[in-house]
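Reopening this one. Same input as before:
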Amino acid sequence: MSRRRLLGTAGAAAAVSAVSACGEPPAPQEVRRGQVVGQTTDVPEGGGAVFSHSKLVVTQPEEGEYKAFSAACTHGGCTVQEVEDQVIRCLCHGSEFDMVSGEPLAGPAQAPLEPFTVTIDGTDIILD
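Same output, byte for byte:
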């Protein structure tokens, strides 16, 4: 096991333990910190991909530049379904978000998507 994965696993376990004491389950992103959440080969330049297992949407606005956001729409909590024409779309109620900033562009959503940072290691996308 790599040092990065070992530290990520330890961090995830600590987050789960801390939150379980309070009675609330951790956010899906919290338990994925330090872990591979996807592959760069799944994220086209000028587009993005939704990784539903970790509730993240990862975009690549320009070659080699990756942005990550919560995939939970800020309007009703639906998981965003697609990234097309440089826009992150939630098909539940029509909200659209900028793929670079996560800011709402259209629809009922008023708040931006929560941003996350990722590190690229080879083709692995690792949630920081």
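So the earlier flakiness isn't reproducible anymore. For the record, Helices lie at 3-22, 28-32.
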